[in-house]
Amino acid sequence: xxxxxxxxxxxxxxxSCKKALATFNDSTSYSFEIWYTDDIVVNMPNxxxxxxxxxxxxxxxxxxxxxxxxxxxxxxxxxxxxxxxEFNIPLEYxxxxxxxxxxxxxxxx
Length: 109
Description:
By secondary structure, the chain is mainly β. The chain has one domain (2-76, 88-107). It has one helix at residues 98-107, and strands spanning 2-12, 15-24, 27-37, 57-65, 68-73. A 5-stranded antiparallel beta sheet has the order 1-2-3-4-5, with no helix packed on it. Strand 1 (2-12) and strand 2 form a beta hairpin. The model has no long low-confidence stretch (mean pLDDT 88).
């Protein structure tokens, strides 16, 4: 995925958002907009994701997955402190390999 930052801004949920365009294989037919803000300070918010080049909190974007367009947008932003145990892996957690995950995704088509 190639992410190109664009010189365009808009206000969304009271935050000043910047625009980026994401494309796959340099094909505009598979491009989508990302609206993100750096008004919310989070260190490396998209680390270890395909959106690592976005240096802000993504508030609104569209993506096409398996020929289905999905529009994803935040409806609110709230400050909260989370307990460290929120990030503990539950005992019943079962790791799923890539093939199994793809089978599950294909079931949604």
